[in-house]
Structures are given as C-alpha cells and as structure tokens.
Amino acid sequence: MSSRSVLVVDDHPVVRRGMAALLALEPWVGDVRQAGTLAEARQAADAHPPGLAIVDLRLPDGDGAELVRRLARASPACPCLVLSMSADSRAVRSALDAGADGYLLKDAEPEIIVAAARTVAAGGNVFGPGVTRGDSGQPPAPFDALNPRELRLLLLLADGHSSRSVAEQLTIAEKTVRNQISAVLTKVGARDRAQAVLMAYRAGLVR
Q1: Concatenated DSSP letters for 64-112?
Q2: How many CA atoms lie within 13 A of 29 on its CB side?
Q3: Can you list the domains of the chain with their CATH numbers?
Q4: How many whole angstroms separate alpha carbon 5 and alpha carbon 187?
Q5: Cα–Cα distance, 70 to 197 (Å, whole number)
Q6: Any idea which residues bear 4-aspartylphosphate here (predicted)?
Q7: Lowest-pLDDT range of 22-36, 45-59, 87-101, 162-176
Q8: Residue 45 CB burial class (10 angstroms; 0-12, 13-18, ≥19)
C-alpha cells in the first residue's frame, strides 16, 4: 500500500495526539494532520486532501458524520474510519449512511485501532470489536431469507470473527463455513462478506 496522509479528527487532545503518534510509526502513513473541531477538519481537508480520515462523531461544533459525508462527496478516494465512544445503533447507522468505511469504539486496544485504520486505508471495512448488536425478532429483508445458522454466522462475521473462529463458534469445519458464507452472500445479494456486513448494519440487523 502506498503512503497515505491521514487526518485525525477528535476534540480530545490526548486522544488526538496519541492516535497521531501511533500512526506516525506505521510505514504506510505519510504525514498526519490533526483537527479538534468540524471547522478545523474542513479547513485541513480542503487545504490538504487526506488519504484516510479517522473521525469522532461528537465534535464541539457539529456531527462528525457531516464531515464523513462531505469527504465522501468531495474526496471519494479518502476512506473514513469512525472512532467513537457510542455503540448506539442510530450512531452506527448515521455514520454508515454518511459513507463511513468502518466503525470502532475508542476503548479498543491501540493495535486494533491501527490495524482497523490500515484495513480501511487499503479499501476494506471494519466493524467492532465492541460495537453492540442485537439479534432478536424477525430480521428484515433480505436477511429473512437466512436460516438461524446462517444468520448467526453473519453476526459473527460482523463482530470481526475470522472463518476459523466462526468454525469454532459453530462447531463446524472451516470449509463448511466458507460454503455457508457463499450461501449467505447469494441469499442477500452481496458481492462479498464486507458488503454483507455493511448491509446488515444499514438494515439495523447489527447494532
């Protein structure tokens, strides 16, 4: 992955500077810019379009989702990772609807946050760990086409489990997991597992 400039947006100086210091150690990171408000973030993004934005939702002068939406329109090549204290389903859906490529809670371990930033910068999606979910009631379409095992498999994927971990959780072979993932993708009309998880978040199935 080529070197990317990163914009870190958070109103807490300790969090902001700590994140910048962690990212500065990564070989794929170029310069790291910081902003403590929505206004500062807009100005920084306009002056130096970032290759990755890490955004808190709660800013003193507005909603971070607004910045994510603005970057999605103005800089489509700039993926956004939301780093928030809130695991509320409405906050998650708001961020995803704005165009966020990942959502992570601030209490995640530093290495997990850096790994999530790397994944999002490379074009992937990251959700969790720590983003709460609910799996009660009848799931909305197209997820109502899934049987209970397939639904649980999707929720495990949304929680960040690997195929091997899913196999252990469901006590089935890893090859069976791969086959069932293919079945899930076909039933919900997703091109890959990342899109299936994103669809589940947007539908409110995963919170």
Answers
A1: HHHHHHHHHHH-TT--EEEEES---HHHHHHHHHHT-SEEEETTS-HHH
A2: 23
A3: 4-127 (3.40.50.2300), 143-202 (1.10.10.10)
A4: 38
A5: 23
A6: 56
A7: 87-101
A8: buried
